[in-house]
Write a structure and sequence with these properties.
The complex is a heterodimer of chains A (118) and B (165). Chain A is built from 4 helices and 5 strands; from the N terminus they run ββαβαβαβα. Chain A is α/β, with parallel strands linked by helices and 118 residues long. Chain A has one domain (4-117): 2-Layer Sandwich (Transcription Regulator spoIIAA), CATH 3.30.750. The termini of chain A are far apart. With 165 residues, chain B is of the alpha+beta class. Chain B has a single domain, classed as Histidine kinase-like ATPase, C-terminal domain (Heat Shock Protein 90), CATH 3.30.565.10. Chain B has 5 helices and 5 strands; from the N terminus they run αβααββααββ. Mean pLDDT of chain B is 88; it is low at 1-5. Classes of the chains: A alpha/beta (118), B alpha+beta (165). Chains A and B meet through α2 and α3 of A and α2, α3, α4 and α5 of B.
């Protein structure tokens, strides 16, 4: 049974990664691979849409920490959107909103990327 | 119109709360392999028990998260990511106290001695991993650790808040 799926969409200048299911020490490897693939293809404007994510542990948070320096050094960013309360609480617990931009809707993140790449 | 609405309002069921009211007593066991694909089973086990005991949704999520983090650490560090070992999990309640005990035979590590990163420094250095222990310490009321030649035992406790008068 698949407990986690990540789907990638391209929206203007950004890649949106939809997370579905549970992101834990078991499934975070899949997300790591998906993000690495995008970076390898020179896509550095990444938006993570959490609307269908049911659960996240520190292993999931670690994936974003692993890539943030790399994408920012290449002029991109990892922005978060559509975060359900229970997911936000885990990010907030550790102060992650200090380091990452979090948007209510992915459209805002897309616009931010469009503006910065103009 | 108003009258009709009032008529339809049913009063909430009367619930008598006395100091003698105690949550359900639980004594549950689960053994899983030291493989990360077992984490979902662990979470469901803890979630069901914490809900049954009467914790709020937020507290249930905290206990589930702490147990997941503890198991992930045992799998990765205690058992060096070897997936065939066992982790014995028990949930025992006493009064308003909810205790999750994790027993393993891997390398021992007293996480109470682990330096907790200051998040400002953590972000400045962009370190990967190591946040699980911090989460456990933040969300549980008590964290205890015992080690004997036979096994390591991590004891995570959370108290059910007193019923508001």
């Amino acid at each position: 049974m698949a407990t986690f799926v990540s789907n990638i969409r391209t929206l203007e200048k950004s890649a949106v990664i939809d997370l579905v299911g549970d992101l834990d020490a078991h499934t975070s490897v899949q997300l790591e691979r998906a993000i690495q693939d995008l970076i390898d293809k020179k896509q550095h404007n990444l938006i993570i849409n959490f609307s269908k994510l049911n659960y996240i542990s520190s292993a999931g948070l670690g994936v974003f920490m692993a890539f943030i320096d790399d994408v920012r050094s290449k002029g991109g960013d990892i922005k978060f959107s559509n975060m359900p309360d229970k997911i936000f609480q885990v990010f907030d617990l550790l102060g992650f909103p200090m380091l990452y931009e979090i948007y209510t809707d992915e459209k805002e993140a897309v616009e931010k990327f469009n503006a910065s790449a103009a | 119109m108003k009258k009709k609405l009032l008529k339809n309002l049913t009063p909430p069921p009367l619930k008598l709360v006395s100091p003698l009211d105690m949550p359900e007593k639980l004594n549950l066991q689960l053994t899983v392999k030291s493989s990360p694909d077992e984490l979902k089973t662990v979470r469901e086990f803890v979630e069901t028990a914490a809900r049954q005991f009467g914790f709020s949704r937020l507290d249930i999520e905290k206990i589930v998260l702490a147990t997941d983090e503890a198991c992930s650490n045992i799998m990765r560090h205690g058992y060096d990511s070897e997936p065939t070992h066992a982790i014995d999990i028990s949930i025992v309640t006493n009064g308003r106290k909810f205790t999750v005990t994790l027993d393993d035979n891997g390398k021992s590590y007293d996480l109470r001695a682990h330096p907790l990163p200051e998040m400002k420094d953590y972000f400045a250095e962009h370190r990967k991993g190591g946040l699980g222990i911090k989460i456990i310490q933040m969300v549980m009321d008590e964290v205890d650790y015992q080690t004997t030649p036979a096994k390591n035992r991590l004891i995570l406790t959370k108290h059910l808040p007193d019923v508001a008068a």
